[in-house]
């Protein structure tokens, strides 16, 4: 018996197949009828896929069942520390470092003592045209969870 392929290895094969087949992440998300950001996160190893989703992705990308098996595993969520220096990821860290305390204060003012869930959560990304250069719009949509004593 062989071990199940690590999620990171499966992710590398998915990315390579997607590029070689000239498919967009949107194409893959549409194929499995899943939200775009969730689909990409799942294919990069951050969420488990259902057996049906994994099978459809593998069929679309001509990947074998070992990849599909890995895509169904529960993940160890998080990020490779080496990725934290990537300019795109670093800018999100920078934005939260600068605006996080203000966002926290505003959440508490509007909702009371609690947090925004990152489990009961949706995230979306879109492009907005702007004469000074296109804008990236990222929406975090998390359920408010109040602290209960």
Automatic annotation (TrEMBL):
It holds the Pfam family CYNS_N. It is an enzyme of class 4 (lyase). Residues 78-149 form the Cyanate lyase C-terminal domain. It catalyses: cyanate + hydrogencarbonate + 3 H(+) = NH4(+) + 2 CO2. SMART domains: Cyanate_lyase. GO terms for molecular function: cyanate hydratase activity; DNA binding. The active site is at 91, 94, 117. The keyword Lyase applies. CDD domains: Cyanase_C. The keyword Lyase applies. Belongs to the cyanase family. NCBIfam families: cynS (TIGR00673), PRK02866.1 (NF002773). Catalyzes the reaction of cyanate with bicarbonate to produce ammonia and carbon dioxide. This is Cyanate hydratase. The lineage of its organism: Bacteria, Bacillati, Actinomycetota, Actinomycetes, Mycobacteriales. The gene is cynS.
